[in-house]
Amino acid sequence: MAGTEFGGHIGRTYRDSVPWWPQPRGPEANSPNVVLLLLDDVGFGSLGCYGSEIATPNIDRLAGRGLRYTNFHTTALCSPTRASLLTGRNHHSVGMSIIANADSGFPSKRGAVRQDAGTIAEMLRGEGYATFAIGKWHIAPADQTSTAGPFDQWPLGRGFDRFYGFLDAATDQFHPELTYDNHRVDPPAKPEDGYHLTADLVDHANSFVTDQVSLAPEKPFLLYFATGAMHSPHQAPESYLAKYRGAYDHGWDAVREARLARQKELGIVAPDTELAPRNPGVPAWDELPAERRRLYARFQEAYAAFLEHTDHELGRFLDHLERLGQLDNTVFVLLSDNGASQEGQHHGSVNMATYENEEIDSVEYNQRYFADIGTWRVQNNYPLGWAMTENTPLKRYKQNTHAGGVRDPLIISWPDGIAARGAVRHQFHHVVDIVPTVLEVLGMRAPETVNGVPQMPIHGTGMRYSFESDGPSRKQVQYFEMFGSRALWQDGWKAVAYHAADTRYEDDVWELYHLDSDFSECHDLAARYPQRLRAMIEEWWTQAGRYDVLPLDDRRFAARRAAASARPDAVRSRNRVTLWGGCSHVPNGATPFVLDRSYTLTAHVECGPEDEGVLVACGSVGGGYSFYIKDSAIHHDYNYYGGIYRVSAPVELTTGPHTFTYTFRKTGTLAGVGRILSGDRVLAEVAMPETSRYFMSWGGLDLGRDGYSPVSQAYSGEFPFTGTIDRVVFDLEDDTEQLGDYEPQD
Fold first, then answer.
1. Residue 427 contacts by C-beta under 8 Å, 6 or more apart in sequence?
2. Which of 625, 597, 604 is nearest to 696 (CA)?
3. Strand partners, 687
4. In sequence order, which ranges of 216-289 are alpha helices (DSSP H)?
5. Could you tell me if 511 and 496 are in contact, meaning their C-beta atoms sit under 8 angstroms apart?
6. Which one has a higher pLDDT value, 616 or 26?
């Protein structure tokens, strides 16, 4: 039988049959393309069109062809904002309370987006749109990002037709760990060839769009373009670094004042807006010793260079769309995922692992790498004073529910659909409002089911009304929560409580601000309006119950990661891991967990007298380990914040099979002895009085090479092994404090 859906007629032969073709389902003619441009860790005052002195002419160009929003908010952290941006739902409701690297065992804290919260890509693909994702993903569980999957939370599993970018929280800009669709790929060039990740991402965005416009011009596209910038490491080409030399010698206090003045001139803030006091722990610039001022300024130079370079590359993308005739009928939504990052801490950082290990880079440590800041040789982030500056005129930072964490730039540009040019909008809105806005623009409704799964309601409020005028906000209420800090916006007022880890929630002090007249949260009205504050606190609890916020959890990243290893299928709960020769690159979240525990690493290889190279390497220039053969010896380098603990032993490389063994035996917390063995015989050993507690690097593991940012400087390049690797085996002991029994540190 032909079935009832066939509209023709089937006879015995084609001569007495009538053919019929179903009408393709698709969007209306001339439906606009949609480009979601998500920047990372860009504070409210970082862009030129939001008052910054950093050159961002191409982003400013978008703003000049559309609208800038001054009262737009995010979730205070990267993965949660991405989850809300792509689904139109609150981040706790979809399972993403903090980053995707942690699963705490509660529905709101899975580190993955629920299937009943379809993404905008799943929605639009069902309506005939092509869907592409470029850049940072970071909403798939970290231990599910290896080439073994599962792939249901990867971009292609969540509605995107094509993907090129990286899956984790951060990557080195000169040595990125890339994924193309569902497989790992190496960068197409080296830093010495002029490679930089942002340019590579733009190249692929241009390629995806070119293919689409060339081969299916009737089909509009959704492009989700999430840059690695401006998340650390702040790395840029030398020409951009050179441009900003000396540009910040006058310090953060002066830059903040100048930015606020420009914001007033641009109409971004009201003329009476005050600059929030310096954040706790940030000294006055003039009180700093000259050596520290020089160091701190160098960090900001790298940030500015990175941002201008990012803007330049985004300009190439805009120019390409214009060449293809797609620029004017594309809805651009450009935003940041949260405020500027406090993760560089007091003195700035040349090593991202320091923060992850709950430690602080010393001034002396940073000074040793002064000349390398901004290059591939270090993975740097700026100090608190400059993060505060990027959030001008607001207080606090990313991870906090005060304005510096959640009030972010938003630009919407659609020349064919928005008459206003360069206008400013002041309505309160939140990242959950982007999906319903896109659906409004396209004349679509959120589907009731996606892939057969009934869908939860959209939580956001459409913003299309704001395209016409700067009238009252249609948003009524929005809650915030991050690491136990809480806030509620309602009718122009904001109640907010900063929560310090490992303190009683009952002791938190709630503040009250009338944001309609106090942009930068400078005047706490809690004492004046106690009844209003009490009502807003009660409403916060109501919202928390409605959107699955509870239980409150103030544990930091390390503790959340440790809790995830109690999951029955957790990769890092395994005591033996065998990686067979030819195994693809293993991302950080799926590598054998060797931190602060005894373990044995055994490499089974075939080689001869002339063979050399890396057997296994894990990490990056800032931390990790490499096990390699060089100069007729076997070596193990443990990179601890750039310093090397090396143990070496001569070997006789007769042609045939060989087994090389390295062991680490704990002698105390974070301390131990590294040994190279032949059978049970110790060939060499090195005392290691300090090792990484929770984290070595965002870099992952490779067999047979040091594939990306180099772990060791004892060799050049990847130093590929010229023999054959059969397998590398990790035997992991149970003498660790990291797997499931972590206690917060004082």
1. 69, 71, 463, 466, 470, 471, 472, 473, 474, 475
2. 625
3. 673
4. 238-243, 252-266
5. yes
6. 616
Amino acid at 114: R
Task: Tell me, letter by letter, the H, E, C secondary structure of 631-664.
Answer: CCEEEEEEEECCEEEEEEEECCCCCEEEEEEEEE
What Cα–Cα distance (Å) separates residue 528 from each residue in 235, 490, 521, 522, 538? 47, 17, 15, 14, 18
Q: Is the pLDDT reported for residue 628 higher than 80?
A: yes
Q: How far is CA 317 from CA 210, 326, 621, 673, in A?
A: 11, 11, 31, 52
> For residue 24, what pLDDT is reported?
81
- How far apart are the C-alpha atoms of 6 and 712, rounded to whole Å? 65
pLDDT tens across 632-661, in order?
Answer: 999 999 999 999 999 999 999 999 999 999
pLDDT at 353 over 90: yes
CB 605 within 8 A of CB 724: yes
- The CA distance from 228 to 237, in Å, is 15
Report the sign of the C-alpha dihedral through residues 516, 517, 522, 526, in that order: negative
Strand-pairing partners, residue 605, are 658, 725
Contact 410, 334 (CB under 8 A): yes
pLDDT range class, residue 570, cuts 50, 70, 90: confident
Length of the chain in terms of residues written: 746
> 59 near 49, Cβ under 8 Å?
yes
Tokens of 99: 């980053």
Alpha-carbon torsion angle 601, 604, 608, 609, nearest 10: 20
pLDDT for residue 50 is more than 50: yes
Mean pLDDT of 453-464: 98
Query: What distances in angstroms separate CA 397 from CA 232, 336, 351, one per listed residue?
Result: 15, 13, 20
pLDDT in tens, 524-569: 999 999 999 999 999 999 999 999 999 999 987 766 666 666 666 7
